[in-house]
Specification:
The complex is a heterodimer of chains A (157) and B (157). Chain A is of the alpha+beta class and 157 residues long. Chain A has two domains: 44 residues; 84 residues, Lrp/AsnC effector binding domain/regulation of amino acid metabolism (RAM) domain (Alpha-Beta Plaits, 2-Layer Sandwich), CATH 3.30.70.920. In chain A, strands 3-4-2-5 form a four-stranded antiparallel beta sheet. Chain A starts with a helix and ends in a 6-residue tail after the last strand. Chain B is of the alpha+beta class and 157 residues long. Chain B has six helices and five strands. The longest helix of chain B is centred in the last third of the chain and has 15 residues. Chain B is elongated. In chain B, 36% of the residues are buried. The chains are: A alpha+beta (157), B alpha+beta (157). Chains A and B meet through helix 1, helix 2, helix 3, strand 1 and helix 4 of A and helix 2, helix 3, strand 1, helix 4 and strand 2 of B. Strand 5 of chain A pairs antiparallel with strand 3 of chain B.
């Protein structure tokens, strides 16, 4: 968890950097820090791996990825790490998470986001991952996205 | 006012802005000047193009992507919403600041959203609030492990 100063920083930039010449100065003004403190803070959060990456965050749909799906598997607990590593190695998915199941309605624990230009490509990738990572015996489902009601950066504070 | 950008009229410079700066955004007091130097254009043009890409929806934001589990508590939630209530329920969910992604998916569980809050208590409160306001139950699947895949996206013109 974050200390008070880190929370203040995250609150300052969680909605994105302002598109102005000196964005870090602008963020600093809003949260009572100097530009240099904001920059140091960002470096520190990156170093501590609280920040995953810094840069342009794109909307996939607007960029031609129209067949986006969440693919879920029910993977034996003993194999989760091995499978996670193998999925990473395929280079086919943009996000991969392990989540707690929600029985009895939802038995799945492994989640991947697959972004494709059409449904066929996306379904094919899901199949490649299933085969390539030896998950043929795992129950699975593919949930294509329909409407996006909201997508923004997380707001914590 | 310029017409909104569409996939087919992204210019080569827009594609470079979208593709080349998803990681390692310059932590410099004048980051857009650094980007401009790499592209051989001036700072004002970088800012102008980024503003347009944001206005047209190609870019969600320019900023930092956080590891949710290092900052607060986060969960993926799913609801089975009767088709005729989907927009009404989606609007209730969207109105909550702690919700940062909300998608319709093709499944009996047809509404999926991410809730991120500063504490487990607040997270539970938000879920309870949604259940109270909609009269529907929410399945919550908290993250247990993030396999840290973050490829970014290659966009072709």
């Amino acid at each position: 968890m974050l200390d008070e100063r880190e929370q203040r920083l995250v609150a300052g930039f969680q909605n994105g950097f302002p598109l102005v010449e000196r964005p870090f100065e602008a963020i600093g003004q809003a949260i009572g820090l100097d530009e240099a403190d904001v920059l140091d803070g960002l470096r520190m959060l990156k170093e501590k791996e609280i920040i995953k990456r810094i840069g342009v965050v794109v909307h996939h749909h607007e960029l031609g990825y129209h067949a986006n799906a969440m693919v879920v598997w029910d993977v034996p607990d003993a194999r989760t790490r091995e499978i996670g590593e193998r999925i990473r190695a395929t280079g086919l998915v943009s996000l991969c998470y392990l989540r707690r199941r929600c029985p009895p309605h939802w038995p799945y624990n492994l989640y991947c986001m697959i972004h494709g230009r059409d449904r066929e490509e996306t379904a094919q990738r899901a199949e490649l991952i299933t085969q390539g990572c030896d998950m043929q015996s795992c129950a699975r489902e593919i949930l294509f996205s329909r409407r996006r009601f909201k997508q923004c950066g997380a707001r914590y504070f | 006012m310029r017409a909104p950008l569409h996939e087919y009229d992204l210019q080569p410079l827009d594609l470079r802005l979208l593709n080349d700066f998803q990681h390692d955004f310059p932590l410099d007091p004048r980051p857009f000047r650094r980007i401009a130097a790499r592209l051989g254009i001036d700072e004002a043009e970088v800012l102008e193009r980024l503003r347009r890409l944001q206005a047209s929806g190609h870019i969600s934001r320019v900023g930092a992507v956080l590891r949710a589990r290092r900052v607060g508590m986060s969960t993926l939630a799913a609801m089975r919403v009767p088709e005729e209530r989907l927009e009404e329920v989606a609007a209730i969910v969207n109105a909550i600041p702690e919700v940062n992604h909300n998608y319709e998916r093709e499944h009996a569980f047809n509404l999926w959203f991410v809730v991120t809050a500063r504490s487990a208590a607040r997270l539970a409160e938000v879920i309870a609030l949604i259940e109270a306001h909609t009269g529907l139950s929410v399945c919550s699947m908290p993250m247990e492990e993030d396999f840290h895949i973050d490829l970014g996206f290659q966009i072709h013109g």
